[in-house]
Amino acid sequence: MIWRFGLFDSTFEPLLPTHWALLVALGLPLLLGMLAALFPPKRAWPVVLASVPVLASGLMLLSAYDQAGLLRWHWDIAGVQLSLRLNGLSVLLLLMTQVIGGAAALYTPGYLRLSETGPLARWLWPLMGVVLSALSLIWLATDLLTLYAGLELMGLAAVGMLMLSGKVAALVAGMRYLLLALMGSLTYLLGVALILGHWGRLDLQGLAEVVEPGPVAWFAAALIGAGLALKAALFPLHAWLTPVHENAWTPVSALHAALVIKASLFILLQLWSILLPDAFYAPRVIAWLGLLAIVWGGLLAWRTDSLKTLVASSTVGQLGYLMVAFPLLLGPDIAPLPRALAWEGFWLQLMGHAFAKAAMFMAAGNLILATGESTLKGLAGTSRRLPLSLLVFGIASITLMGLPPSSGFTAKWLLLQAMVISQQWWAVAALLIGTLLTAAYIFRLFRYCFDETAPRHRYQPLAPGMDLIALTLALIAFALGLLAHFPLELMHGGSP
Amino acid sequence: MTASFDAIHSLDAIEVLLALCLTASALVCLFDRHLVRACYFFVAFAAAMTAAWLQLGAPWLAAVELVLGVGLTGPCFFYALGHVLPGASSPLERDKFSEPWSRVAMRMVLALAWVVMVGAAIRYVVADMAYAPSEHPLLVAGVVIAATALGAFALHRHLLRRLLAFNLLGSAVFMLLAGVAGTSANAQALISVGLLVAWLGSMLGALLIRQLLHLEGVEALGRDGKPGEGAT
């Protein structure tokens, strides 16, 4: 498991252009965000210009990885060791972050112009920049201190973004999220304290060599797991998620559901693969909770009357698929083939969900903005007037339901194969139940939209491109299934 | 020989005194119904933490605590209360507490379970503490403050109270960190980042509380979302 995260020595040193690409990838989103706070962009084209160098840095890192394999950076600042690594998985997640972040930023000017957002709107830009920079740092960091700093920066900026709308409900939900996120980080820090006290080091590669199973590893894993599960909204610690999304601005919800909660899950899996290699019970507990999450999230989304609650509850259920794969990734006695399949399926599902959920939040935001209604009943008759928004919603749902040939299908196929080989039948059942429930709540929404008897309302026209951005994200989620060999190859590259 | 024993003894006396100061100010800060006074005791607690870092031989950390804890985080709470100038009256003098006893008891049990777990973990890491807890007064104070702060966080609904409880829990966790890991460069860096996060979080929380007060009045702070969510 550990080599898959790239925690081994690299063969080559990074070249000078690669250093610059790293600097741009980590720092430029932050700088551009601050610049945008001073001069808020009113149109989409400055955002396009700004996202070109960021994406170029990601592609440069990709080509550097293609040529040299795993790359590592080390710094020693006053006795504190900081280290970064670039392997196939982190390049992939970095590119995902840059594409979704760029799409959310492109969507923002139109959204801010059309909805009454108040005087706080310009602060969205720097916060978005902080979130993107911190996310990029999290995908690359390999010591517990950098991970902690990145996690906290991201969490605080995310809280700030989510309550910018300034409504009372948003403030109450945001305050609750802030307190719980801070609590989660303290729990994480306590786990790190145990690790530092017992093994005396914070770098993951060194820890992977010295950690031996025992009470300290278990306590540390439990504390870190609880803190990160709270931040990742893993069932049953998901209650803060829906109210927060209910009141947030659309691009913020898209970024948060697609990327922010995934970062905590990434750290959780990475640390547990070091602290709990071949543990029997802990991954099983997560998997059982995942089964409950699939059912509970699906039921919540099925019964709700609000469009945003539907999309947010579906996140809870979709995270369940990832939780169900934990025993295959961490458990003992798993043969190499199912473990490799589960590894591929896990990350493909995570990426497919990120793109699809961002697209879905944007489509939902477009529908709400155009109709002025946020309930499912208010969407009656939209099939005639807003076909493009509904199409985006449909394509994104194909990925979430896991119909072929989307990335959701490929990911579930890989996971199913791994589960069948290792004979985890209850996990197969969980996947099937999840698909049925997802279909149930998606088709319930479409039944309202295709109600032809509804009276005609006046719809607010959308800014040009708002639907196209969402469509692009939904199509990427779709195409990741057809072109899955490219990401899968990257995920496996760099084996020693 | 006797002189060095005396020196150790006197050091211990200072540590015990500091631990008592920390625990007492934390308890007042967590459970005093008078909010402004609770905030003053938070500042006193942060000052005692500064002294504790000096005592543990981490002057840089003491400086960070002085700037971030006393200088920046403390004023956040007074700003949240609207108590910026001394002598100004605040709409938020006291908070009310009306929880059914069954819930209070349940949360206490949860906090107790948590402290047992943390205590057990620390016992494994610092093996000699199990035999002589009195030799680590600051560590014991850390465990006690962490437990009570977590209990208070679970118990209180008032947003400012929960923010205070989070800050105290944070300080206790830093103390535990220094207790189990010493004051190595890594530990100091972790604690400094943690203090920065606590300040930023408190500032964000204070801004939010002001905005809520402005929009909804004092009542909005007492109810935290829905009444029936889990404790931690």
Would you write up a description of this structure?
The complex is a heterodimer of chains A (496) and B (232). Chain A folds into two domains: 1-277, no CATH class; 279-496, no CATH class. Chain A is built from 20 helices and two strands. Chain A has helices at 16-38, 45-68, 88-114, 124-140, 144-162, 168-199, 204-210, 215-232, 241-246, 250-275, 281-303, 307-324, 326-330, 336-371, 382-385, 387-401, 407-421, 425-449, 466-482, 485-492, and strands at 71-77, 80-86. The longest helix of chain B has 32 residues, at 185-216. The model of chain B is unreliable at 1-7 and 225-232 (pLDDT under 50). Chain B has 232 residues and is an all-alpha fold. Chain B has helices at 2-31, 35-55, 59-81, 101-125, 137-155, 159-181, 185-216, 219-222. In chain B, α1 (2-31) runs antiparallel to α2, α2 packs parallel to α6 (159-181) and α3 (59-81) packs parallel to α7 (185-216). At the A-B interface, α5, α6 and α8 of A face α4, α6 and α7 of B.
Give the C-alpha Rg of chain A: 22 Å
Strand order of the largest sheet of chain A: 1-2
- Which structural class is indicated by helix and strand composition of chain A? mainly alpha
Poorly predicted tracts of residues of chain B? 1-7, 225-232
What is the H-and-E element order of chain A? HHEEHHHHHHHHHHHHHHHHHH
Extended strand count of chain A: 2
Q: What helical percentage do the residues of chain B reach?
A: over 70%
Instruction: Report the structural category of chain B.
Output: mainly alpha
Number of domains of chain A: 2
Give the amount of beta strand of chain B, in percent: under 5%
